[in-house]
Amino acid sequence: MDSQPTTAARPPHSAPAPVDAEDAEAALVENYPHLVRLAYLTLPAALGRHRRVLTAHTLVQRALPRGRRVADPAAAQVPGPRGAVDAAYALVRQEVVRGALEFRGRAAGWRGRVPAVTNALRPPYVWGLRLHPEAGDTDEPALDRALAALAPAARAAYALGELEELADRDVRRVLAAAGVADPRSAVNEAAAEGPPPGPSFDGADPCTVQARPTDLLRRRQHVRVGLAAAAAVAVAAALIGLLGDSPEPYAAAGSPGAYAQGYLAPGKLVRAGRTAWTDTSRMDFTAWPPRGGRAGDQELLGRALKVWEQPGSRVRVSATLGTSRGVPAQEPQLLYAADVDSASVVVFYDGLRIVRYAEARDGKGRAALDFARVDGADITTAAVVVSRTDGNTRFLTAPWVSSVTSHDLLKPDGAGQALHRSADGVSDPVRMPGADAAAGACGTSWPVLRFEASSGLGEHRAFLLSDLGDVVPAHLTYSLSTPAAPLEATGPKALASWARTACQLGSMRGEGVRSVNNWQYATQALPESGGSATWVCTHTDTWRGEGRALVLFMPPGVTTGAAGQGTAVGQSSGDTGACSGFVPHVLAGALWKSTAGHWYMVAAGSADVTRISATDGLQASAKGSTMAVRAAQGTRAQLSAVLRGSGATLTTLH
Known about the structure:
Elements: E1 4-5, H1 21-30, H2 32-42, H3 49-61, H4 87-101, E2 105-106, E3 115-116, E4 129-134, H5 140-148, H6 152-163, H7 168-177, H8 183-193, E5 205-213, H9 216-220, H10 223-243, H11 298-309, E6 315-319, E7 333-340, E8 343-349, E9 353-360, E10 367-373, E11 383-389, E12 392-397, E13 401-408, E14 417-418, E15 430-431, E16 447-454, E17 460-466, E18 474-479, E19 487-488, H12 492-499, E20 513-525, E21 532-542, E22 547-554, E23 567-571, E24 587-593, E25 599-605, E26 609-615, E27 620-623, E28 626-630, E29 638-643, E30 649-651
Parallel strand pairs: 1-24, 6-10, 18-20
Antiparallel strand pairs: 2-3, 4-5, 7-8, 8-9, 9-10, 11-12, 12-15, 13-14, 13-16, 16-17, 17-18, 18-19, 20-21, 21-22, 22-23, 24-25, 25-28, 26-27, 26-29, 29-30
């Protein structure tokens, strides 16, 4: 892998994978207000706020693909609202922008009331009400007037640049994927003639609306028709009731399966004893007792099991990478069942997976069924997500957890705050990392949880877990001399290292991460009395067994906090054991500029490196595990190293 300047941290592009409808729906639901606002600002202001609100919501809800689809290769590399490259979100965003750009005005044959876009888009009619966004802190009409003067593509370019904080290059990629013939002109028009950037953009929110009545006299004329229609509906409902029971609200209809045969049934659920964890050699989910106020609710448990077997169309099903979505091979174990916030939640464990079912307490809306692989869990697998609401997360904690405190990983010297838990072990809401950050940014804090745990055999452990968007949070560790024996990331050195690398965790969201280890593998004295640089290799282990490695270069100017993160200078493009206990070797290089303005190629390998060489653009060699040689700005070179003992050749990550 070529060495890069310390300012280059973008990962290499790879072909986007096909996106399932379930993944696209998860991306849409998670980013729904964001996508609606994008559509609202791209649609023409001449529609009026009422029709524009309805059309924006409809565009987003119609953006789901049919079957498996692949986002445009260029647009799929554009970051989403939280900075990560997400093919599912890229595909949905692409369709939302395309629909807003293809808006044609009013539909012929609908008496001028309903706007139409491609695919005969018909927004819902809100009977008796006129909707408009709640006023913001700025002059929304002025913003509308400025956007109305732009061509549709330029409006989309402005919205993408301001709302998603995309660079011009990335805006052009999204526009091209949405079918814009000349994206460059659209970006230039938005910059030259569009509204000024900044606070003026923080105006109306089409997901927060006010309602006013329509013409009341005209509505009276439709009362008789409405009453007749209501009577017809009532008759139809009565006939359906006479013909038979209504189907399950969430489970799909089908032939009798494991549930009907008694294989999946509330009475068959495994229930561990209340104190089983105090006298066992397996500190994992098998020792978790059933908890929650509805652990004995046979109806709720039955619905959850039926949906597990045959989820219906009203169920959003998700699974971490490499996790099966099928029925279990044995009777599952009940871990939790209760009402949490606005949902009824059930958590199962089947020996390989955590399965979380959630339905609205009022029976309306959609249900969720989440699968997460957790084979090989241990004492540090001490929390399961039971609820996510408005950027806040509640965790069900393991029975062996004695206390939990919340810490900011970007502030290693900050004091933790005790986190209250209910008698059932459910925590108070915890802010998700990055929930308050701008699109593509790390934010000013990275909340993590410190757990204090004690086994029944007297073993005491303190460890850190970070929420990365999966059902089970990731375990953070630290290594100083060798990655073969990682330490808990609770000491001063570990926290100082993580404070300078925490923002890299954002790229690991939704990847099914089990643990992340920071290995400070080298310290290098820089030329011209430039101080001491630190080289860190971050290794990520997933529950499916794959590993990723990322090398960070941290010159003396790198401190702590969101503004002082290390620069990525090397990473694996696929599964690797590098920087782990299996392959405790690593080599990386970067271009570094001294205070005098001189450029150097600096490189560092792990302690077992005896010589480093550079070729292809730079001819240099140095004994030992570090190298620093003068080089021209922009120099690219291939690095290699010789390992002590075996004499094997080590190359940079690729």
